[in-house]
Amino acid sequence: MGRSHSTAIEKRKRLYISYENNVESIAFSPSCTSNDVRELLITICGAPHISSLKLVDHLGQLVPISPTLECNSADKPYRLIVTTKRRDSILEIKKLVSNMGEIFEKVVQCHGNHEDLMKKIDYLESQLQMDGYQAIEIEKCKHDLMQLKSKINEEMTRLHVTTPVTAKRDVPLYPKYILSGETIQY
Q1: Which residues pair with 62 in a beta bridge?
Q2: Is the dihedral of CA 140, 141, 146, 147 positive or negative?
Q3: Which of 74, 66, 100 is nearest to 16 (CA)?
Q4: Fewer C-beta within 10 Å: the chain N or C terminus?
């Protein structure tokens, strides 16, 4: 058992990374993924996860971030370059928030003045209230129509009218036309 434990320690890779003139050391197993190595490098520099990382050897050549990296010494550390630092991402967030404010102003058609915004909100509330009043009026009219229909039905049943009421047309009555004998023979 002790032997397998010592071989596990020997299999771990140790890399020396230089970031902002500080030399840090990371250790990982060769069976980990490239993302695991990248996470270790992100924790060294304290950058956000959206950052772009570059690793350069002591000769200045770009080295891929992977678990197959060659071990190095503290004398010749890999140099870590972060292209997006935390300050840059904070600036991006500030820009995004300011853009959202501009979009909000365009949508609401209010230009940053608190009073304008309150007036716009009051106007929208009054419009909703008016729409509500209109809906109430429509419901009242429907209710009145239902009452009228029920009263008409009551009157119809009270008068025992079983035939539907139809409008009579004023059609004059003409005498019956009789054909003459000539017309019949023709």
Answers
A1: 56
A2: positive
A3: 74
A4: N
Identity of residue 110: C
> Would residue 58 be called left, alpha or beta, if left means φ above 0 and alpha means ψ between -120 and 50 degrees?
alpha
Strand partners, 162: none
Q: Do residues 44 and 19 lie in contact, with contact meaning Cβ atoms separated by under 8 Å?
A: yes
**pTM, 2 dp:** 0.41
pLDDT for 46-62, tens place per residue?
887 777 888 999 888 98
What whole-number distance in Å separates Cα of residue 80 and Cα of residue 86? 15
Per-residue model confidence as pLDDT tens digits over 121-164? 788 888 878 887 887 888 888 888 888 888 888 887 777 655 56
Cα gap 97→75, rounded to integer Å: 45
Q: List, edge to edge, every strand of the sheet that includes 78-82.
A: 22-28, 13-19, 78-82, 53-56, 62-63
CA–CA distances in Å: residue 71 to residues 15, 17, 36, 55: 6, 11, 16, 13
Q: Which helix (H) or strand (E) holds 151?
A: helix 114-158
| Strand 62-63 with 53-56, pairing | antiparallel
Diameter over CA atoms, the chain: 140
